[in-house]
Amino acid sequence: MFETRELSSAVGRVRDVNAPEALVFDCETDFETLPPAQAEEFGLVVDSLEPATYPSSWLPADAPTLLARYAGSDLTVGMPGDGSIAWTCQTDPPIVLVKPRVEGTPEPFLDFLLAEAFVEIGLEVPEHFLGFFEDAYSDLDRAVALDAGSTYQVAAALYDGWVGLQSREVFAEWHDEELALADAWQDAGGRLEDRVSGLPRAVARGETEFADATELACAAIKHAIELPAPFAALDTDAYRDHGAEYAVRWAEKTFDSLADD
Questions:
Q1: pTM to 2 decimal places
Q2: What confidence tier does 36 reach under pLDDT thresholds 50, 70, 90?
Q3: 125 Cβ contact list (under 8 Å, min separation 6)
Q4: Burial per residue of 171-190, b for 16 or more beta-carbon CB atoms within 10 angstroms, e otherwise
Q5: Which of 57, 108, 122, 126 lies at 20 to 30 Å from 72 by C-alpha?
Q6: What secondary structure letter does DSSP report for 26?
């Protein structure tokens, strides 16, 4: 199921700086969430396992089943929205997983994704948005006038944006230290610019769902791309400093504004 992955020299240096103990594996099969039996196989290669658990009171009644499972006592590795690379600190040492869906990804961008995972581990941010919002997730659920699945998507996006405000500061240092990775970071951002700038029109015309727009805008934050309203309010020091409280207030104001239009 898992095979140790060799890293490029540049990615190896980023791991050495940010997450020197992290293990990296290629996965044989794709996944959103690993079946518990497979996740527990990590016990053979790590020193310890400590599943993340959260109070059920943090979850709204209609929370997706996978989110309820993540909050429970099972070792849950990988969640919807993780993308091609997933990481977990529920193991000691941490583990980074490369999914088969990366096949065909240009090597420079794949190196960036791996380096990003090590940077996020080094930032010691929560592994999932539930650890970011905590009991404020129910407040976000009340603020977001969407179904449970879309609310999950918005929450994951907002968390991604908050992490991006921190990780991009590390990425910017690569211009002096790891030019190839810096170029990959900037190139990925350049590919997003036109899509991000057109988000308000796409949402207004019904061409893009609000949750999808939030996901794209928040993904752009780590690339330091200028965001249109209402997402520009997330690209601020205030969001970085106040985190979940700010995210909930942003959602309240945004959906109140949408209801008035």
A1: 0.96
A2: confident
A3: 132, 162, 163, 166
A4: beebeeebebbbebbbebbe
A5: 122
A6: E
